[in-house]
Amino acid sequence: MKPNIIFFDIDGTLLNEVTYIVPESAKLALKKAQENGHLLFINTGRTIIGIDDCIKDLDFDGYICGCGTYIEFKNKELFHRELGIQLSKQIVNSLRECNIDAILEGKNDIYYDTNIISNEVRRIKERHIKEGFYKGKTFDDPNINFDKLVIWTNENSSFDRFHVEFENTFEFIHRGEGFYELVPFGFSKASGIEYLEEQLDIPHENTYAIGDSTNDLAMLKYVKNSIAMGNSTPLLFDLVSFVTKDIEEDGIEYALRHYNIF
Length: 262
What we know:
Blueprint: E1 5-8, H1 24-35, E2 39-43, H2 53-56, E3 62-65, E4 70-73, E5 76-80, H3 85-97, E6 101-105, E7 110-111, H4 119-131, E8 148-152, H5 159-166, E9 170-176, E10 179-184, H6 189-200, E11 207-211, H7 217-222, E12 225-228, E13 242-243, H8 251-258
Parallel strand pairs: 1-2, 1-11, 2-3, 11-12, 12-13
Antiparallel strand pairs: 3-4, 4-5, 6-7, 6-8, 8-10, 9-10
């Protein structure tokens, strides 16, 4: 019998976005699921360099990172796709010309500009420094090369100009007011799952995904069994197979029990 393969988002799904703690009930549920022979994967918009130690300590079987631009199984890299230096520099020039804040995310480095307008970007940078994710690379790095990016606009941003320039290169995922996640076309949390199904010979009916945000839509629509956290963006509720409880109300455990994973 083929194992089930279960994909978990991080922020708002496994990790409380205020405390940055994984609930104990979730840790226990994940352990029991693996003991029952199921494969567990992180499927996140974060690149691999930005995975918290508390997530790594949960011993997932593998990772889909950067919305499908990086895939790892049993500590072995299976796939990685970068934008390349030329395109990376073009994006930097346009971001600056259009007055748009951004975090540029790669496998080995995260890049910040020296001039940051957004308080949210400053907050995230401080956390990245604290967690050791940020090594000091800036937009001026001569070898800048990343996988994807997130952007924040303000009243002085020329978003339409930026969007027109890159609308055929990236999917612009709207995450909030003035907040977008940009993923290269052809890549998504769903494309990563499809890749692993083929590589590991997993039947589609054995696929599960749990998420909470609009950047989880691709994987939630793709898998056979889709689960939204109770604290999810309300848009997800009518699009999934099952809505579990909030993250702090043992939502992960509740979902896995519902599907008899353990």
